[in-house]
Every structure is written in structure tokens, then in C-alpha cells.
Batch of 2 targets.
Target 1
Amino acid sequence: MNITTPKTLQIRTSPHIVRGLHTHDIMRNVVLALLPVAAFAIYAFGLAALLVLSVATFSCVLTEHLICRLTGKDTTVGDWSAAISGMLYGLTLPPGLPLWMVAFGGIIGIAVGKALFGGLGQNAFNPALVGRAITQAAFPVAITTWYPAFAVERFQSLPSSTLALPFMQPVWDAVTTATPLGTMKFEKQITATYDLVMGFTSGSLGETSSLFILAGGFYLAARRMLNWRIPAAVLGTVAALSGIFHWIDPQEFAGPMFMLFSGGLMLGAVYMATDMVASPMTSKGVVLYGALIGVLIVVIRYWGGLPEGVMYAILVANAVSPHIDSWIQPRVYGTKLKKEADLRQEQIQTESATR
């Protein structure tokens, strides 16, 4: 007598995996792809970058673990998603940000941007960007104070602001600098393309690693762990729009190469806009989603009050993402004819009732 085991259908939230991979497999590969980016950030900014990245990652992982324990759930830190959020959040920060501010943003990013929505697979916004946005709103001066990359003493000393006590006014070193986007926005000076591509500029920890970011993106796309259409749509839209405006007035508007390799565009397009949960699911939807991000970035950089707009562009697109999916739904075969038949039937019934 053959006894067959009944099969069950499991319905889960996104990300939906169509191959024999678990979510933690994908997340672990994302961490591996981010390691060269983090290593270059540490090489460029020294001990300060190492501490910022460590505190950002630790605060995110610890917050998720504690929230799971307090709510009576099994800890989910083993799926690597909190570690990714921490690494990405840390890469959006300047190297001289006080560590207590770094921890504050990490806690908020996981608690508000992820746990409040129900955890992995249910967050409407990218948790790393939520943490960064809250940190920028709470500490606008600290998060826009930049230090030069490749300083001689970067592995022997720390910025005076790094170890500032909580809720105390940090003391800034005299050696500060402006980012390429800042000099373009307020001084109309364009940084050399070679310096931008090679990462020889100041800025957030992830703004100096374009080549490593692209390499990691190609790796994940080749393994089908990243939807390549999203970064392609973001970068293509920024390049096209900036090219048009630069052609109209090259003195006023920076060209495509500067726009693509400056600021946090590469990091945002490859690792944040591609969040499987906060981005659309259809092929047409992700292209529209990426194009929206690209348009917002160009508008904010050229005409906004801030030199950078990647964070706000992605958060706005995250909010629009569910609506994009509802607008661009594949048509079920035969539904159009059925709707027409139902409409005709309603017209006939209406005419009969009025006679």
C-alpha cells in the first residue's frame, strides 16, 4: 500500500524566490558584494570609516535581535538582512559623524523602517535610507560636515568629532572639505571625471567606490540576485536628462559623467533602489520606478536646495512602488471581452427597465 505525503502550498511575502535559494543565501551574497565597497571606504578614510561602519552594522543587528526577543519571536539576524541595512546605512554617512549619532540612526532605521511594518518582506521603505533620513533631520550640521579622503594620518588618528559624548556638541577639526556635488551646486566648479571614477574625492563612505559598487552590481545581476533593469533605468534616465540640460547650457548644468559618478548615485541605484520588497515586481513597473528615481535625482541636484537627492528620490519611489504595480498589471486573457459583455448586458437591462 503506497501512502503519499500530501503537498502543501506555502504563501509568503516578497522577496519571492523562483530558484532553489533561500532569502539568507541572497542576503549573504549581497554582503559579499558590499565588502569591497566597505574595504575601499576604510582605505580612503581610515579608522573613522571602520568605526562608523562597525557601529552602524552592530546597531542595526542588535536592534533587530532585541525587537525579536521583546515581541516573543525567534531572532531573524541570521537572514543577514539587518547586516545589509547596517552596512548600507553606514556607507551613506560621513566619516566624522559622532558614533552615538550613527547608533541612533541605526536603531531608528530598523525599528521604524523595518520592524514597525512587520519585518523582512513587509517594509515599505528601505530601512537604511530611513535611518539616514532621520539622522539627517536630527543632526543636519553633523551629517553634512565632510573630511578629505586619503589623509596622511587616517590610520593613526580619529576626527575629534568621532568620540563625542551623546547629546554633547561635537568639536569639529579645522580640516574639512566640500563634496564634488557641493562645489558644483554652490560654486559651479566641476570635479575631474578621473577623480570621480577612481574615488579620489570626499563625501560619504560609499561615495568614493563607484567601480567597486558597479562590480558588485554586475556580480549580483549575473547571479540573478538583483534586477538589473532598476539601476539601468536610474542611471540611463540621469545620463539622458543631464546630457540634454548640459547641451542646452553647459555652464549651468553638469554633464552626464559628473552626474553619474558623483555623490551616492551608484550606491543608491545598485544597492538601495533594488530592494526586492520596496520596488515593483513587473518588468515594466521597475523601469518606470527607476525612471522616476532618475528624474527626481536630476531635479533635486539641479534645482533643489540640497546638493544631493538620491535618498529622497528613492524614498519617494518606495512610496509610489505599490501603486506602480497596481497600474501596470498584466492583463488576464479574456477579461476585456468579458467586461464588454457585462457592459452590454447592463445597457440592455437599463433599457428594459426604462420602457
Note: The mean pLDDT is 86.
Target 2
Amino acid sequence: MNTMKNQIKAVAVSGLHRGENPQPGGAVIASLRRAFPNLRIIGLSYDPLESSLYGRGDYHPDAAYLIPFPSAGADTLLERLDMIRKKEDIGFVIPCLDSEIENFTAIYPKLQERGVECILPTAGSFEARSKSNLYDFCRRIDIPSPMTKTAMDPLSVEKCAEEVGYPVYLKGRLYQAHLANSKAELAEAYDGIVKVWGWPVMIQKALVGEEYDVTGVGDGEGGIIKSCTIRKLLRTSNGKGFAGIVVVDPELDRMAQRIIGELRWDGPFELEFLKVPGKPHVLLEINPRFPAWIDFPSQIGCNLPALLFERLLKQKQTLLKTCVAGQMFIRHSIDLVGDFTDFVEMASSGERIFTPNMAQLENMQ
């Protein structure tokens, strides 16, 4: 990987929370630092309590700035990025949350005018893999997927659940899923989702089996540049992989290639599969970003965020190792110690600049 010391513009990375429901940003930052130790990394945060704002080292940015929630819209995001760019020489952005992609896609031409590059899926590809369209997409390309229906009101939710058959998962448009085993559990489940994410709600047949993930980088022309496949060994209450093991599965490889090829996906992706005993893998979701465990393959020679950044730099891409079956990861939690003034600074000013540590200073010399 590239360790040159010439000046590269800063990269902005979002999704900085590393708690019980971890976001990918911290892992993306750690991966980038392995390949580009002198790179200035700017954190984009929605909440002054996002955990990566309060530590030092590989998983933490050099500076961080609050940005408006995605619901504020694309124009508001662009205005805030323009304000940040007055202080930071940002040349690249890696969005790490599903909810951001539409806004970044909308402002991408204006970012290019400002000299800021992203790698994003097309609007058509992004919409085709959405939770409301995924079932039809999978049927069209002959990929198994649980029956899923879309509802726009409470009566439709009940009707769809009866048609799909209990138990069902109620899913929000972008995030959140609740299991309902009966009509009595249904109302509470969709009420909670609608309050946060609004309509529509997806009703998906609940299946029981082992979960698999494929993450990689698409080339935008139908190919996968590199990928890593794991089986989840432990999951959080939100379904995030808390431990996983690399597997070699030609069937999953074929399915992943078919999906990414059909979408002509450009940039990072995560495909979530379920394996029911005695049946083929079924596709549950397509996420338009890296997973929270993306630093695991980076540590074993398959640095996908660095590969993405080399594409952003328009450099020749480093040949990555293939992840070896049996290699595994398990996440653990630590306490980040800080001072309340750190939180006050972030909450009041919307920004926080970190002092480089000695190792960083030595690398910059």
C-alpha cells in the first residue's frame, strides 16, 4: 500500500459511533491509516456523543465536525460542507451510512465543481437495492430472497403480514427491524419504526438460519475488484456482526457477482445472506457502504477502504491478499476516557481539532 509522504488532500469519513450498534466510520479510518499513515482524516458526526470523537489512535479522526441529519436535505449538507472546507482542505468524502447516500448523490456534481471526489452508486442502482424494491429485483435476476411486501398504512401492514405469514420482520425504509410473531405484536413494532423513519414499512418473511456477509468494492462496470466473505459467529441485538469467520463459498461468490454485475455497482457494498439448512442462501439486504467489521479484512491483508481510496486518487490499485478461510475476528469494548469539556466543545461549536500525537508528528517529518 501507498505510504508516500507527499501531500494528499484530507478525506472526510462519517459514521463514527463504535458502541453497541457500531457504525463503519471508525473501522474505515483505521484501514486508511494502515495504508496512508500521514493522511489527514476528518470526521463527520451527527451527534456530539459519537464514541470515535473521544479517543486517540487508529480508529479516530484528526478533526471532527458536526453535520446536519440527513433529513435536513442535500442543500443543507452542502452548505455545511462548504463551511467545513473553509477550515479543512477536504478533497475526498467516504460516506459510511445508508441514510447519507441519497444526499451525497444529489450534491455530487457540485462537490466535483469544488474539487471534492466521492465514489457513489448511480441513483438507479441505489434504488434497485432498496428494501422496498429488493424482493422484485431478486426475483428478476433469480436470486432467492424472503418474500417482502411494502405497506403505506396500518391496515396494509396487517394485510401484508397475513399474506406473508407469521413470523414476520417489520423493517424501516433505511434502518431498524422488529420481529412480530402475531397480530398483537404487529402494531407496536410498526409504530416504533414509523415514528423514527416514517412510511413505507416493509414486511418480510422471518427465516431462521446462519448469517453470512460479503463485503467488497464494485468497479461500476459490473465487476467486483475485491471482496471478503464471512459467517457471523456472534451478533448484537441489532444484528451487527460481533464476531465472524472467513469462509470460502463458491455459491456465495457466484451470487455476489451476479448481484453486483446486474446493478453495475460502483464503490463499497455489503451483501447480507441467510442460510437455511437444506436450502440455498437467500439475500436479506444490500447495504451501500462498508460494514462495521471492515477493519478485520484490512488487518489480514485485504484493505478494501484503502483500495477505494486508491481509486479516488486515481492511482494504480494495490494487489490485495485473498482472505484465508478460518481467520476470524471478535469485537470487544473499552472505555474511552475524556473530559466533559471535550463534549461541550463539540456540542457548542460543532467542531473539535485533535493535537497530533508524537508518532504522527514523526511520520510527518
Note: The two ends are 20 Å apart (CA to CA).
